[in-house]
Amino acid sequence: MCLSALKKYNKENTPYSYKSSILLEALFRASRILGNEEIFNYVNDMINHYIPEDGVVTTYKLEDYSMDQVRMGNLIIDFYKLTGQKKYKTALDSIQGFLAQKEIPKPDVVGWSLYAGAFLCFIHQGVRRSQGVP
For residues 24 and 30, what is the distance between their CA atoms, to the nearest angstrom? Predict the structure, then answer.
C-alpha cells in the first residue's frame, strides 16, 4: 500500500496541506517501522520540497488562519529531531508564531484552544529534547 502511494503522489500533485501531512506522516512512520529506505527517501524528498533551505514554507500563509496547514508541523518535528537541520527549526518557529498569535476562542469552542496549546507544548518539548535539554 505504501509503495502505491509513492507512485500516485508526487511534488506536482501533492501540495502542502492537511491531507498531504497525514499521508506523509503515515509513510514516515511506516518507513521507520519497516526499515524501508525507499519510503523514507520519498518522505524526505517531499518534506524538502515543502521546506527549502531557508526554512520558509512559501505556501504557508499566516493570514489564512488555517489550522489545516499546522498539521505538517508534526512531521517537521520528526525531521528536526532526526536531522537537527536549522531549516526545520525555522519552519517550526513560524508555525509556533502562528499559533501564539491566535485569539483564544470563547469557552464554548474549546477544541481550537486545546489543539493549539497542545501543539505549542509539543513543539517546545520536541525542540528542547532534540537539543539535549530534558
Answer: 10
